[in-house]
Amino acid sequence: MNKRIIPDAITSCNLLCGSIAVFLATQGAFVWAFVFILAGAFFDFFDGLSARLLKAPSPIGVELDSLADDITFGLAPSMMVFCYLRPILGWWAALALVMAAFSALRLAKFNVDERQHDSFIGLATPANAIFWGGICCMPLAMLAYDWMAWVLIGLSFVSCWLLNAEIPFFSFKGFKRDKVVIISFLAGCVIIIGFCVAKAIVAKHIEFALFSGTGCILWYVLLNLLLACTRKSQ
Length: 234
Prior knowledge:
Oligomer: single chain
Number of domains: 1
Strand order of the largest sheet: 1-2
């Protein structure tokens, strides 16, 4: 059996999870849509790992990975935001779908950018998807005023910028170089997750636990922006 089939099969599972997440978003099942996005992230991690362990990288695998990522981490979260905000904004909520296009642009740039072996230039698409997935799992009643929905549309444009901005973002692949920063990030994540899980238990709503993903990604973005500003001032 060709060893390359295994990584490609895992990547295809990522794409399948993203496709299911898109369908679930159109049905208003945002929690389950987010669960399948997280499942896609799991497969996205292991397809590259399996290719390295089996020593079976392939040009087709690289292209398939980007296609799967754009569905799971580009289209799926964009559809979640669109379907989440449509009851308030109507068809204006379709503005959130622009994120899918900018996610595709970010993935295309990643494939040809030689600087991103152990770090990222711009926000990674899985991180962006987790940020929006957690938001869309919150009850729509949380948006007490219509203007709050427009704030989310504005944030979606900020995401489009972050995805393609020339801003360095640390990766776990660069742990040896960025050990202190990564440990600080993980410590903050423990606090955020602990708070959200405790809130979910008290309120008896799993949505608050899922919102921890949004909090962790927000902490990740703020930490990297702070580091970028610090480097510029030096």
